[in-house]
Amino acid sequence: MHVDDTYGIFYTTNMPYIIVGLGNPGEEYVDTRHNTGRMVLEHVRKELGADDFKFNKKINADVSEGKIGREKMIMIAPDTFMNLSGKTVGQLVRSKKAAEKLIVIYDDFALPLGRMKVAFNRSSGGHNGLESVIKAVKTEGFLRLRIGTAPENAKGNAKPIHGDEKIEKFILGPFKDEELKALKKVSKKAFEAIEVIVKENREKAMSIYNAS
């Protein structure tokens, strides 16, 4: 049995799921919309009953490990700024086969707050963190949990945000208390979706969580 400990993370030939929460390191980014991936990942860690995150110097990331059934989950929060996220992920996901067990959680202001979509094998949609991951793993063939952050319009769709300055101000702005409550609810959905992915398959997760 081969055991890979290249980066101080043990796993056998049965490759683990790598769950990555995208965000920015530093106190000034805590509870900001662009840190949604990290915030949801923390909820997933708690739901799994996994140990607190610990810094792994080899991959420059906070790491925690847990299990869903017999499947190992390695949760990763890169300690890099968003547009360099791939530097960490690329060290752990080094083949297209491994990428199929990669799940990236990130903020999406094309979706209203409280909504989530499960996606596979899609472009970055202009998200710098996701673009960095795609370039590093050399494939778009991995799962994403798109977590909505935008306010709703009258029809329940995301209000469009135009202009680079306005977009940056919005995504780097902090969640309001009521918004954090909505994020907590969608974080629970994210964990449930990961369970469906692991226990059944990604198609089932998409049919359930992309329906509304």
Q: Can you describe this structure?
A:
The protein is an alpha/beta fold and 212 residues long. The chain has one domain: Peptidyl-tRNA hydrolase (Rossmann fold), CATH 3.40.50.1470. Helices cover 34% and strands 23% of the residues. The chain has seven helices and seven strands. The chain has a seven-stranded mixed beta sheet, sandwiched between helices. Strand 2 and strand 3 form a beta hairpin. Helix 1 packs across helix 6. The chain is globular.
Quote the distance from N terminus to C terminus.
44 Å
Helix fraction bin: 25-40%
CATH topology: Rossmann fold
Order of helices and strands: EHEEEHHEEHEHHH
Mean pLDDT: 91
Gyration radius over CA: 16 Å
For the record, what is the CATH homologous superfamily label? Peptidyl-tRNA hydrolase
Number of domains: 1
The top level CATH class name: Alpha Beta
Quickly count the helices: 7
Question: Could you say which structural class the secondary elements and strand pairing correspond to?
Answer: alpha/beta
Cross-sheet strand order for the largest sheet: 2-3-4-1-5-7-6
Q: Quick one: overall form? A: globular
Indicate the low-confidence ranges by residue numbers. Answer: none
Summarize the structure.
The protein has one domain: 3-Layer(aba) Sandwich (Rossmann fold), CATH 3.40.50.1470. 34% of the residues lie in helices and 23% in strands. It contains 7 helices and 7 strands.
Chart the SSEs and their pairings.
Layout: E1 17-21, H1 36-48, E2 54-56, E3 61-68, E4 71-78, H2 86-92, H3 96-99, E5 102-112, E6 116-120, H4 128-137, E7 143-150, H5 164-171, H6 177-199, H7 202-209
Parallel strand pairs: 1-4, 1-5, 5-7
Antiparallel strand pairs: 2-3, 3-4, 6-7
